[in-house]
Each structure stands twice: as structure tokens, then as C-alpha cells.
Amino acid sequence: MLGSLHAAWRRRPSAMVVGAIVALSLAGAVAAAVLTWRGSEGPVGDITALRSGGGERWPAVPGFEVPTRLPDLDPALAPPREARLRPIARRLEVSRGDTLMEMLVRAGIPRAEAHEAIRRLTRRFDPRDLKPGQALLVELLPAADGAVRLASLALDVEFARRLRLQRTGEGFALEDVALPVVRRPRLATGVVEDSLYLAGKGRGVPDQVLMELVRLLSWDVDFQRDLQPGDRFELLWEELERADGSDRRVGDVLYGRLEVAGRTVAFYRFERQDGRVGYYGPDGRSLRKALLRTPVDGARISSRFGKRRHPILGYTRMHKGVDFAAPRGTPIYAAGDGVVTYAGRKGSFGVYARIRHNGRYVTAYAHMDRLAKGIRRGLRVRQGQVIGYVGSTGRSTGPHLHFEVLENGRQVNPLKIRQPASERLAGRELERFRRTVAAIDALRTRLAREPVIASRE
């Protein structure tokens, strides 16, 4: 380095001197400008003393210090820390074939963390019960490395019940949340002209309510033959809506009445003190019978019990059951409480199930498209539980249910068996039922008058 400077000095000494003088002059000018600018913020002392002084005896110059770090951003302009870590809300909708693990991993959640969340959730929900169209509400917490973590997960497992999984310092906490629901009573009355279904739809009655009416009265009314034009009906049910308006559905049927074949049949919904719910006539007698006469909703009888010409074999033989024609996939219900003794394929019967109800009755169901999930030999089922779906398996010409009732081991006509006497309320339960009847009747009267009052106003 010194050699280079010496060589430069020898070549052009005058240029080096001029350059040095210019550099020193510029440095002095910059220092003076800085002192003058800092001085505009307050007194800086005597500039003359600063120039003439020396070493440590120079007077202190207030405000002339080099900052050790950059100044902080104005707090009013900086985003708060919690805003930078705020979870991102996403709605995930279940598609056919989806699993909960696949949905969480697709959302960017690490597989190990998704597994832990599902493990906690399965304490109150089976992920295999996810249905297409069902929605999951997840909150994702962004991380510094660009990954995400699961902050929370919410899943509606029932109309008014939600499971919420929330991240805590120790993992995930599971909470069962009751969703607020608004209940609105609905009343409909009408006259049958072509069919009960068309009459009900014309008065705004939901399909579920009409099917419940048919199911409850199927042992007292033959809907294929008894119902005639001019017969009247009345139905009272609840409409449920979430308080936030996000969903709405049909609730319980509270009351039903049907004037048919010159008589009136009616029923009221009643919850007993032990929590059991049933439907009872005005006298407190239960509508529930040991066996359902029609284990398929909305089906028509396509072949009755007795001798007939077989549609496939071509010769006359005994038909030991009743055939109910219905669209493929229509649910089939257990005719009564009992234990499944057979569930699977059985020769010309196709997909077949048999239920033992007591020491006297057995029912059989044939030509099903498939068994319902979980239906197997040894399973105890309840009346009205779905056990399979209408199909055309085995020796069959079209979708239908072949239904048999065996009494003491012998096939009998399902439409003519004698049912045991119905249960009847008594004592305190009967008194509670009468109060329920009075409350429902008062509600019917009020709802029936409301349109008249509204029209007058």
C-alpha cells in the first residue's frame, strides 16, 4: 500500500496535495452542516470553542450522539401481534368418499396433528358417520415457516348439537355445544280429493309429516282402500330453525287427526316421566302396536298373501307374504322390537333379513338392495329402525319388498294378524297426558284463529 502511494506521489505530487485539501474541506463542511442541523433542535454550545478546543476538553454537544439501533415503528402504524397470528377460518364440505383425515391434510394440517385431533374427536363422534354435504368449520393458525396448525374445528353432529375442538396449551379440548333453536308450531287442515299426499302438499305439509301420519295410523287405517274423496285431515307439527338462520328443518309431529270411512282417529305426542316418547289416542291408549303392518313408507301393495301365478316361474303357487312396490333405495323398517336372526343372501330371496320379535312372531324381509349399515345376526333392533333398502335381488322382476310374518313358525297374512291390546296410560301419567292434550288443543285453536284475525286487521 505504502509503495503504491509513494509511486503516485513521485508521478503527480501536486495532484495528491490538491486531492487531500479538497477531501479535508468537504469533511469540514459536512461536519459544520450536521452541527448546524442538530443545532436547529436546541443549543449546541459555542461553535468557535468547538473548533479551537482540543481532545477531552471539548464541550459536550447536546443531541449529537449516534443512535445504537433503528427507531421503533410508530405503534399506531404497526399491526398488533395478535393480528399477525389471527387464525384463518375455512369451511370444508364433505364430498362422497372423503375421510376426515384426508380433508384436514388437504387443508394443510400436518398428518400427525390431524391424527391427534381426530383421536380426541372420536370420543363423541365416529368419523365414519360423515355424510356428503356435511360441513366442517376449521381455523388454521399460520406459522413463521409458512406451515399451518389447527387452531379449532367445529362439526355439527345433530341439528341442535355441535362438537368443537379447541387448541389449548396441552393439546386439544373437546366441547359439546348446544345450538339455540327457535321452535315454531305449524297447523294444516284440508280435504282429500285425489290422494292424501296431494292434499297435504297443497296445504304446505312436509313429506316427513305426511309419512309420520301414515306410519302412526297404518294399523287403524287401510290407506289403500279406506281413504276416500271428502275425507278430512288436520296436522300440527313443529318447524325448527337455528337462531342464526343457518338451517331449518321439520321437528316433531304434535297432533294428527283423520276423518275416514265415517269415523275419526286422532293422536297426541306425549313424553313420559322416564323420557320415553310415544303417540296416544285421546283416551290415553298407545297407537304403537307390536308389529308395523307396512314396513315401507309410501309403498303400494303389488301382490297380496295367497295363491297367485308366479311372475317368473309361470305356474300357480302360494304367495306366503305381501309385496310392497317402491323405488329402489327406499328405507325398510323393522316391523317391531327384536333380534336379527339372519342377515345376508338367501337363494331366490336375494338379500334377506329375519327378525325374532318374541316367542310368537318372526318377520322376514326379502329382495333388498342391501342391508343397512351395522345390521348383522344377533343385533337387537327397535321398531322403525332402518334395516335395509328396497331392491330387486334374487328371483325378482322389479324393485319391491317381500314381507312375511310367521306366527309360531307358520306364515300368516301380515294384513290380518291380530295385534295384542295397546298399552294404556294410567295414574299420574294419565293426568300428565291430559294436561298435554289440553295444551295442544289450546295451541290448535289459537293457530286456527290467527289467519282470520290477521285478515281482519
State mean pLDDT (0 to 100 scale). Answer: 80
The whole-angstrom Rg is 42 Å
Looking at CATH, the homologous superfamily of the domain at 300-412 is Glucose Permease (Domain IIA)
Number of strands: 22
Largest sheet: 10 strands, antiparallel
Report the CATH architecture of the domain at 300-412.
Distorted Sandwich
How much beta, percentage-wise? 25-35%
Give the N-to-C terminal Cα separation.
107 Å
Bulk shape? globular
Give the helix proportion (percent range).
10-25%
Which properties best describe this structure?
457 residues, globular, Glucose Permease (Domain IIA), Nuclear Transport Factor 2, Chain: A, ten-stranded antiparallel beta sheet, alpha+beta, 22 strands
